Automatic annotation (TrEMBL):
Transmembrane segments annotated in the record for this chain: 6-25, 37-56, 76-97, 609-628, 640-664
Keyword Lipid metabolism: no
Domain ABC1 atypical kinase-like: start-end pairs: 198-449
InterPro entries (alphabetical): ABC1_dom, Kinase-like_dom_sf, UbiB_kinase
Protein name, UniProt field: AarF/ABC1/UbiB kinase family protein
Alphabetized UniProt keyword annotations: Kinase, Membrane, Transferase, Transmembrane, Transmembrane helix
Signal peptide from the UniProt entry: none
Family assignment from sequence similarity: Belongs to the protein kinase superfamily. ADCK protein kinase family.
Top-level taxon: Bacteria
GO terms of molecular function: kinase activity
Length: 672
């Protein structure tokens, strides 16, 4: 066969395959992937000849050297039946593929290539992490076979090994260790103390790498944007480094620049952290008890937000704006009858902030670790707690990661809260419920505490409220006493919440995480700080503020203003109802299926029922006609009744396949 004929045959075959695939998808009424549809058409084209040759062989053949045999008009109907059967083949194949291999269960070619590249990259990183873990003696613990260490020196040695391994692991694992060092509710004290030694200080990136980032984000070289710019960084961390600068308007600022390529490193390591967390939760008891998979996911989300400095700039602006509208400009707490400590925030320069560069007000001071102890430390701890509680309960925008590294002691004795990469937000309803929860805790009223808790968290239908009230009452009797451990308090509260089937919303979980993190910071400021007692004192002060004559008057005015339009309409509505009842015209209008989703569901259900009934009827009629003998002959081998029966059988198959494809196709949000 020469090339032109081969080309024509190939093009004709391709057109036939595409026609078969398109007809099958059209008759099923469901969208399929292009590759899946083409493969179904290709298989149908390949199977059509062997499957349909018996039907074609039933036609009378012209004998050798004889006269041509006219098959008659019946042959046209038989050929039409053959065409319908050919189209039926890809439909059956698509339905079987939908049932056996749902979309998304097998990755596509591009996904396979990307997956292989990711596997190779992860394999190298896994090998590196494994070598680090083995070098520090942590290999057995990753496999869930590590010996349980009971004595304090053994736990210290294990904690030191973990710190050294995390430090060698790089930026993501250093950040993970820093986060874990604030979770006194999860880890023993030895691990918290050791992980607290992790330092995020690294060698600064060369100026040749930093300058292109600044130029791209600022729209020009730093010297053309700032009046002064110091190329020597003030400090360097694994994610970013900070340079001093001065605006053309004269204000001193700091410029935070993200390290080049750090986003790819973090993305790769976070993928590994998620996989390690899933493995540890599956294979180890301590992983399941800590819920390491959920911890890893929360850490990954927070770290990804930290990489985008636009998020941090927006968070800083939101915290400052909410403070200006909902609280005094600085939070002061007097100690010993004189003096005070304020908690301040640096402000961003929005016009110069981007994804990789953050420009903000420069605050001069020293790290929190250099703060003195004694009365000033206690005073600063009270100010910091008061600041965060006001952010949560009054302003609605709060710093979600108040660990010691995000605090600075300024030269004027005030505290500065830094790094707003992670910020929580609460609406008015949640804030009000949390206020009632705290005030009820201060009064030790288990009924009011239960009511407020059920307003904060989704209320299960089968919640046992009396049992929950008793559990919260015992909780308050155990922890709301002087000298109680605040770390154990958070642990016991979460145990009560989970034990009664309550789910904590993400925004409320962020509040509890922030308070648990703050506890470690307060202990750094003032060892032995009574978080429970000070929080109750804040509740008392907040209650006094709410009962102030001005606040009560403002609340009453707001409520009356909200009710006034309804009160104006109420008399007319009552009069119309009374008149209708008096004259016997009172009725209730109920509009069924008012929701468009309900109408679509009912329409789809009726459609499926109708197709099922029609398919079953066509199949039953086909069986009856195929069982009849005699009748007019369409061809020597097929009668008219049989031809109609075969057509009805194909129609029945098409209708049944349309029903089955809807049954087998899972909803989009249920796919893996």
């Amino acid at each position: 066969m020469d090339f032109p004929v081969t080309l024509v045959v190939s093009v004709a075959a391709l057109v036939m395959i595409l026609l078969l695939a398109g007809a099958a998808r059209r008759l099923l009424g469901v969208r399929f992937g292009a590759i899946r549809t083409f493969l179904a058409g290709l298989l149908a084209f390949a199977l059509s000849a062997p499957l349909l040759s018996p039907i074609l062989d039933s036609f009378p053949r012209t004998p050798a050297g004889g006269e041509p045999v006219d098959p008659g008009i019946g042959a046209v109907w038989v050929l039409l039946l053959v065409a319908m059967c050919v189209v039926l083949i890809p439909m059956v194949l698509l339905v079987l593929a939908e049932a056996l291999v749902p979309p998304g269960s097998i990755p596509g070619p591009l996904e396979v290539v990307r997956s292989m590249r990711g596997r190779i990259s992860r394999a190298r990183r896994y090998s590196q992490i494994t070598r680090i873990a083995i070098r520090h003696g942590l290999g057995p613990y990753l496999r869930g076979r590590g010996a349980r260490v009971e004595d304090r020196p053994g736990r210290r040695r294990l904690a030191a090994s973990l710190r050294q391994a995390l430090d060698d692991g790089g930026v993501t694992f250093v950040k993970l260790g820093q986060v874990l060092s604030t979770r006194r509710d999860l880890l023993p004290a030895e691990f918290v103390e050791e992980l607290g030694l992790l330092q995020d200080r690294v060698q600064p990136a060369p100026w040749e790498q930093i300058e292109p980032v600044l130029t791209a984000e600022l729209g020009g070289p730093p010297e053309s944007v700032f009046a002064e710019f110091d190329r020597t960084p003030l400090a360097a961390a694994s994610i970013a480094q900070v340079h001093a600068a001065r605006l053309r308007t004269g204000e001193s600022v700091v410029v935070k620049v993200r390290r080049p390529g750090i986003d790819r490193v973090v993305a790769r390591d976070l993928d590994i952290v998620r996989r390690l967390a899933a493995t540890l939760e599956t294979r180890t008891r301590w992983g399941r008890s800590l819920g390491v998979r959920e911890l890893a996911e929360g850490f990954a989300v927070a770290l990804c937000e930290e990489l985008d400095f636009r998020v941090e700039a927006a968070n800083m602006a939101a915290v400052i704006a909410s403070r200006a509208s909902g609280a005094p400009p600085a939070v002061s707490v007097a100690a010993g009858g004189s003096g005070g400590v304020a908690v301040t925030y640096p402000g961003p320069v929005p016009s110069l902030c981007g994804e990789r560069v953050l420009v903000m007000e420069r605050l001069t001071g020293r790290p929190l670790a250099a703060a003195d102890d004694g009365a000033r430390g206690l005073e600063r701890a009270r100010a910091l707690l008061d600041c965060l509680l006001r952010q949560v309960l009054v302003e609605g925008v709060f710093h979600a990661d108040p660990h010691p590294g995000n605090l600075m002691l300024l030269d004027d004795g005030t505290l500065a809260l830094l790094d707003f990469g992670s910020v929580g937000r609460l609406d008015a309803a949640v804030r009000s419920a949390l206020q009632r929860f705290l005030l009820a805790m201060n009064r030790q009223d288990p009924v009011a505490v239960t009511d407020a808790l059920l307003e904060v968290m989704p209320r299960p239908e089968d919640v046992d409220e009396p049992a929950l009230e008793r559990a919260l009452g015992q909780f308050m009797a155990r922890h709301l006493v002087p000298g109680s451990a605040s770390v154990q308090m958070f642990t016991d509260l979460f145990r009560i919440v989970s034990g009664h089937g309550l789910s904590v919303p993400p925004e409320v979980a962020a509040v509890f995480r922030a308070l648990a993190t703050l506890e470690g910071t307060l202990q750094r400021l003032a060892p032995g700080f009574d978080l429970v007692g000070e929080a109750r004192a804040f509740a008392g002060r907040h209650l006094s503020e709410r009962l102030d004559a001005g606040a009560v008057k403002e609340t009453v005015v707001q409520e009356v203003a909200t009710l006034l339009p309804m009160l104006r309409r109420l008399p007319r509505r009552i009069e119309r109802i009374a008149s209708a009842a008096e004259h016997g015209r009172l009725g209730v209008n109920v509009r069924l299926l008012a929701d468009d989703r309900d109408r679509r569901f009912l329409t789809g259900l009726l459609h499926q029922v109708l197709l099922t009934v029609l398919g079953a009827t066509a199949g039953l009629m086909a069986a009856i006609l195929l069982g009849l003998d005699g009748g007019p002959r369409v061809t020597p081998a097929i009668s008219l009744f049989q031809l109609i029966g075969y057509n009805l059988l194909v129609i029945s198959a098409i209708l049944v396949l349309r029903v089955l494809i809807v049954v087998f196709r899972r909803p989009r949000d249920a796919r893996p």
